[in-house]
Amino acid sequence: MSRRGACAPLRRAAVQRGPAALSIQTSSRSPYADEVTDAGFLYAYRAGDVDQPDNRALRAAHSLQVPVAYFVGTRPGWYQALYPTYVTHDDPGVRQVLLAVGAMAGPIDDPEPVLPHDPIARRYAMREVRVRLHQARFRNRVLPAYRYQCTVCRLKERRLLDAAHIAAHVDPRGAPAVSNGLSLCSIHRRAFDQRLVGISPDYRVHVSERLLLDEDGPMLEVLKTFQDSRIEIPRRKDLQPDRDLLAVRFEEFVKAA
Hints:
Blueprint: E1 10-11, E2 23-26, E3 41-44, H1 53-64, E4 68-75, E5 78-91, E6 96-101, E7 103-105, E8 112-114, H2 119-145, E9 161-165, E10 181-185, H3 186-193, E11 197-199, E12 205-207, H4 209-212, H5 218-224, H6 243-256
């Protein structure tokens, strides 16, 4: 493993006991792409001696194969708890470990933490966590830039808002940057994803002809009213939607229509 990312805090709560008892934490400001791989999270030792107490506890979690609690920041002051998490590889030469996500298995009223032995199951679990953390972090960057409202209809109910990628995060151009995102309500997010609504590089809304010709109740009629309207964009230029990415996405919309 290569040494990537920054050392994140290791903590031992007063109630934790044993040589491998600890919780670990990564800040929301850490570069997400430098922390995670298909096999798990790359996590650096604490600065200082390799055998200082926190590093010993981290390495003991590997040798004993006991789970630790991993708190990953999604925005300042907010964390998602990943438990159980296991240290599956320890490399003292580069002062780094690899963390893999486990699961709770057994009776509903008394489940036990386990690390799946099947590598396919491990990769699947890691992929699910990766997508969830990516979307949480992306959402918490995009929505504030749009002043917590839908860029199309201006809806301000945060529970109905999401961050939509212009270029998908699996696309080489799909960086988790605000300029690659749009704040959309649930209806417009789904319509955008399904190529029923497109946004052109001049920031104009386009409703597919299929919907414009359809008659299916008041909700659809409301959706039609946004045809050729202009989206609300962030005030800061560097946060505004990337016009080149919008052009590529809009071409997909035109082809689908």
